[in-house]
Write a structure and sequence with these properties.
Low-confidence stretches: 11-19
Mean pLDDT: 84
Shape: globular
Strand content: 15-25%
Length: 205
């Protein structure tokens, strides 16, 4: 094999390794986010990217969660409708070692209103973003801005929320003792949910 072909193969291998690492980190972030939401840490404060003020946000998992197995035949599990993050199927999937591939994240950002979008582990870019209704007097609207500009402004706000949450996650992730002091809490939460599901199933018999 020529030197150029060897270098090309190494380059492709490195790109694939980086891609896998990115997906893994994204999946870990979504799992951490899920854990935070269920443990009363579902709030954030961040600067408004468009105005000189601070914004407050409360967020939740909406009506879709997708989990993915790394091995075996049952590759992907899609949970939709109602409150899937609190379902027994979700508890069992997490306990079996499935990774969070995507989830639908809702956020109430004051004073803008409610946003909902799907986040995927591979790139963390919001998809199918539902923006607040500016005709609702409770939601912020700038009468001096045309509608397309206002939508861009709202989109920018949601992107900054996701960035704020991901930065918070990375700061914890890079601390010494992440596995013992932080990720162990996530593992215990998964175990507790699984045990709770077993107890609930047993009480029905």
């Amino acid at each position: 094999m020529s030197e150029n072909m060897t270098e090309s193969k190494e380059f492709v291998d490195n790109i694939e390794a980086l891609s896998r690492a990115k997906v893994f980190l994204g999946s870990e972030f979504l799992t951490w986010l899920w854990f935070s939401i269920e443990n009363d840490s579902a709030k954030a404060r961040f600067p408004d990217p468009n105005y000189e003020r601070q914004l407050t946000a409360e967020f939740w998992i909406d009506d879709k969660v997708v989990l993915q197995a790394t091995t075996g035949l049952s590759h992907e599990q899609i949970l939709k409708g109602g409150d899937p993050s609190k379902s027994g199927e979700a508890a069992m999937a997490l306990a079996s070692g499935k990774n969070v591939r995507e989830l639908k994240l809702g956020a109430r950002i004051k004073p803008y209103g409610e946003f909902v979008a799907t986040l995927k582990s591979e790139d963390m870019q919001p998809r199918s973003l539902k923006l607040p209704d500016t005709s609702d007097p409770a939601n912020f609207s700038d009468p001096d801005l045309p509608a397309p500009m206002l939508r861009l402004l709202q989109t920018d706000v949601y992107l900054h929320l996701v960035q704020t949450l991901f930065t918070r996650f990375l700061k914890s992730r890079m601390k010494e003792g992440w596995e013992k002091e932080h990720w162990s809490d996530v593992k215990n939460w998964i175990k507790s949910r699984y045990n709770g599901q077993l107890s609930e199933s047993g009480s029905l018999h």
